[in-house]
Design a protein that fits this description.
The complex is a heterodimer of chains A (about 90) and B (about 400).
Chain A lengths: L9 E2 L15 E5 L9 H5 L5 E3 L5 E3 L9 H5 L5 E5 L4
Antiparallel strand pairs in A: 2-5, 3-4
Chain B lengths: L1 E6 H11 L4 E4 L6 H12 L6 E4 L3 H13 L4 E5 L1 H16 L5 E6 L13 H4 L7 E4 L3 H16 L7 E6 L7 E6 L2 H7 L17 E2 L8 H30 L7 E4 L6 E5 L4 H13 L4 E6 L1 E3 L3 H8 L4 E6 L9 H11 L6 E6 L9 H17 L4 E3 L4
Parallel strand pairs in B: 2-3, 2-4, 4-5, 5-7, 6-7, 11-12, 11-14, 14-15, 15-16
Antiparallel strand pairs in B: 1-8, 6-13, 10-12
Helix pairs in contact in B: 1-2, 1-6, 3-4, 6-8, 9-12, 10-11
Classes of the chains: A alpha+beta (about 90), B alpha/beta (about 400).
Chain lengths: ~90, ~400
């Protein structure tokens, strides 16, 4: 086993190498598209790259990897993102 | 070969220049400062083609060396005491990341109470960091050791960082004649660094220092131990080869001085080995067969070599310039552990001495031998604090 490993912990970058981290979430960000002004601040601030840009210039949340930290909801100047408890809404 | 009069620190700096180090990142601290001052001069004058990075702390100094080494460069830093402690998180990182960095540690006591003088506690605080720890006795050896250290560190069977320890002031600021090898000789001994296969390569991006879950962490640590086991052999090979090229062979993991027929042995590391040897010579003139075992390496710990060297002795005294409060001597504990499985082993006396730069003279070593023999006769073990007031 030891002989099959590199000398130190090195990994090639892959999508979601640590698994679907969206499972860690207790609250999910929900976007109210009627309020979204497409400023992309949520996309810029998301520490996980879990805010995806859409072709129409807007955004959507990648719930497979969003950990529910709420940074996007906090930064949104249009108050278009609400944190909703998982399993409730 | 030219002869120069150099301080221990200047000898280290010259070793760095001869080793063609490519990145130096350091923060000044007494008594290390003159090493990096000298290197800065070399870089400024274009004598050493290296990037000199001035950093805001020792933590950053080691972080910069880690980046440089991961990028494939030959990296160097130097520090002492509080600086080493502040650097500690990154010291462990360099070990685990298996980066062949060389660092000179100019040994100084740890505060409080505030003290700038010689003591080995700083280096011993990092003994489990995965660094090879070497100890120089003279300015000549300090220079040679820096050059040897890169050969050991960069060996593919090792790939671990190396700490070259030299005593603060007693060695760092004492001037001695030093034989300086030709650059061509050093270039033959230490070829240009070739990056190992896992080095940072922007065209093949990788994540370094990623998480290792419980299913692999132990295996990575096991590899560090294997590398240390290999290093024990490589340190000896490299010393042998350096000896053939320069005529200076130090003994590998340990130096044995008049130990072959000795009844009593002094076991220690660092510059005060010179005083111990002088005491051994004087005591031999009086008919007492005394030898000195100087530890050139404490990681890997030379258990085998040590056990061989003391096999025929009646008693040994381990003289430790470091305190592990509550033990109290790491060095004595490790020597005893190395001898425990041996059917023939000498009585081991333990001394704490010279803390915070308190002077220890050849007369003190003569006393240590006398006290050891007394303890042997009376069957008394324990640790004696030399000259405690």
């Amino acid at each position: 086993m030891a002989s099959e490993l590199p000398l130190t912990a090195i990994a090639a970058p892959t999508r979601g190498a640590a698994g679907r981290t969206g499972l860690w979430r207790t609250e999910r960000p929900v976007i109210d598209y009627s309020k979204c002004i497409k400023c992309l601040l949520c996309w810029l601030y998301c520490p996980e790259g879990a805010v995806l840009r859409r072709e129409d210039g807007g955004v959507e949340i990648d719930y497979d990897y969003c950990k529910g930290c709420g940074v996007c909801a906090n930064e949104c100047p249009a108050k278009a993102i609400t944190m909703v408890e998982e399993g409730v809404g | 070969m030219a002869r120069a009069v150099l301080s221990g620190n200047e000898a280290v700096a010259l070793g760095v220049k001869l080793a063609r180090v490519q990145v130096v990142a350091a923060y000044p601290i007494t008594p290390q400062t003159t090493i990096v001052e000298k290197i800065a001069e070399y870089v400024d004058r274009g004598e050493l083609k290296a990037r000199f990075i001035t950093v805001e702390s020792e933590h950053s100094a080691m972080a910069a060396c880690i980046g440089a080494a991961a990028g494939g460069a030959r990296a160097f830093t130097a520090t002492s005491s509080q600086g080493l402690l502040y650097m500690s998180e990154m010291v462990f990182w360099a070990g685990g990341a298996r980066l062949p960095i060389v660092m000179a540690v100019v040994n100084r006591s740890v505060a409080p109470p505030w003290s700038i003088w010689c003591d080995h506690n700083d280096a011993f605080s990092q003994r489990d960091a995965g660094w090879i720890q070497l100890w120089a006795e003279s300015a000549q050896e300090a220079m040679d050791m820096v050059i040897q250290a890169y050969r050991v560190a960069e060996d593919e069977r090792v790939l671990l960082p190396v700490m070259v320890n030299l005593d603060g002031f007693l060695l760092s600021h004492a001037y001695e004649p030093v034989d300086v090898p030709e650059q061509a000789l050093v270039d033959r001994f230490l070829p240009e660094k070739t990056p190992a296969p896992y080095w940072v390569d922007p065209s093949n991006p990788k994540s370094y220092g990623t998480i290792a879950a419980p299913d692999t962490y132990m295996e990575f640590r096991y590899k560090m131990q294997t590398a240390m086991d290999n290093a024990a052999r490589i340190i000896e090979e490299v010393d042998e080869e350096w000896g053939k090229l320069t005529g200076r062979r130090y003994g590998g993991l340990i130096e044995r001085y008049r130990s072959e027929d000795a009844e009593v042995g002094l076991i220690l590391a660092g510059s005060w080995a010179g005083d111990a040897k002088e005491a051994a010579d004087a005591l031999r003139k009086k008919g007492l067969k005394v030898g000195v075992i100087r530890l050139r390496a404490t990681r890997p710990f030379p258990a085998e070599r040590l056990a061989e060297a003391v096999e025929g002795m009646d008693a040994v005294a381990v003289v430790d310039r470091s305190l592990s409060p509550g033990l109290p001597s790491v060095l004595a504990a490790e020597v005893k552990a190395a001898l425990y499985d041996r059917s023939r082993r000498p009585f081991v006396a333990s001394f704490i001495a010279g803390l915070g730069g308190r002077d220890v003279t050849p007369l003190d070593f003569a006393y240590i031998v006398e006290s050891t023999l007394k303890n042997l006769k009376e069957g008394r073990s324990g640790t004696e604090w030399l000259g405690l007031r």
